[in-house]
Specification:
The protein is 41% helix and 17% strand. The chain is built from 10 helices and 11 strands. The strands form 3 sheets. Strands 1-11-8-7-5-6 form a 6-stranded parallel β-sheet. A 3-stranded parallel β-sheet has the order 3-2-4, sandwiched between helices. It has a two-stranded antiparallel sheet with strand order 9-10. Strand 9 and strand 10 (238-239) form a beta hairpin. It starts with a strand and ends with a helix. Bound molecules: NADP nicotinamide-adenine-dinucleotide phosphate (NAP). NADP nicotinamide-adenine-dinucleotide phosphate binds next to helix 10.
């Protein structure tokens, strides 16, 4: 019987540990502050921002909220980021993506001080990860490593296949698995014989952005499957990139959607905020 990797429970454990670390810092007179910027009022973004603020409150991180109008100019946004860069009380800066079309996301990400880049998207953070230096790590892949480790999945020496090569999931995921001494293959839309490639995996990470695309024909018997995708199916029910029911009898462990990777992403953002204290020393 396959084990269900419970991201909800693991993220709670992690948040409780972080709460203790934050209390220890507070006892030393160190207050952790995260600045959250949202431009416009995209509904999904507002939900994400709300959940991030709630997590801060739970852990004891002070959050500063900047809700900017949809027509905020790029210049105004960059000015605010620069002001926060220079504010010693602020440990982390998060700009909720996506941004309105008239604002250049790359420019925004690059303007955030790399020492406050708690999303781990700055080129300096990505570079640090790829050469094994200390820095912030993109929250979703960072959370997947935590899920694997805390659910007792050995990574060292394992064949890992990551399907997807996006900057926020696939690429940092492959770097992190490499850091954990896995043998890593990254597949994408130009990969030939995807089924054969995916079937090599002891650990298959799917970040493809297509609802229920991966069925048992892509999965080796006894593999561990991590489903990063998040979609609504025809009945408006949440589902992942993996056809869970079809794959379940063939795996040794799997993350559900919802309740797998999703809850870990915010928990890892909180971890990055706490790690910021050390990174900024
Ligand atoms: P993305 O930027 O759309 O990237 C998708 C990747 O999948 C691309 O590298 C693409 O290849 C590859 N791909 C697409 N179709 C393929 C096919 N038929 N065969 C092989 N590869 C294929 O997506 P993302 O941002 O990485 O996100 C992936 C999924 O994770 C989405 O469902 C997203 O909503 C979800 N997500 C969840 C969380 C969370 O917290 N749970 C966080 C982030 C993302 P090319 O590069 O060749 O185009």
């Amino acid at each position: 019987m396959a084990k269900i990797i419970d991201g909800k429970q693991i993220s709670m454990e992690l948040k409780d540990e972080l709460k203790e670390r934050v209390a220890e810092y507070r006892a030393q007179g160190i207050e952790i502050t995260l600045a959250v910027i949202q431009v416009g009022n995209d509904k999904a973004s507002s939900v994400y921002v709300g959940n991030k603020k709630k997590a801060c409150e739970y852990i004891g991180i002070h959050s500063l909220s900047y809700e900017l109008e949809e027509d905020t100019t790029e210049e105004e946004l960059l000015e605010l980021i620069q002001k926060l860069n220079g504010d010693d009380r602020v440990n982390g800066i998060l700009v909720q993506l996506p941004l309105p079309e008239h604002i250049d996301e790359d420019k925004v990400i690059e303007t955030i001080d790399a020492k406050k880049d708690v999303d781990g998207f700055h080129p300096m953070s990505v570079g640090a990860l790829s050469i094994g230096k200390k820095g912030f790590i993109s929250c979703t892949p960072y959370g997947i490593i935590e899920l694997l480790q805390r659910s007792g999945t050995e990574i060292d020496g394992k064949e890992c296949v990551v399907i997807g090569r996006s900057n926020i999931v696939g690429k940092p995921m492959s770097m992190l698995l490499l850091r954990e001494n896995a043998t890593v293959t990254v597949a994408h839309s130009h990969t030939k014989n995807l089924k054969e490639v995916a079937k090599r995996a002891d650990i298959l990470i799917v970040a493809i952005g297509r609802p229920q695309f991966i069925d048992h024909e892509y999965v080796k018997e006894g593999a561990v499957v991590i489903d990063v995708g998040i979609h609504r199916d025809d009945n408006n029910k949440l589902c992942g990139d993996v056809n869970y029911e079809d794959v379940f009898p063939h795996v040794s462990a799997i993350t559900p959607v919802p309740g797998g990777v999703g809850p870990m992403t915010i928990a890892m953002l909180m971890k990055n905020c706490v790690n910021a204290v050390e990174i900024q020393k």
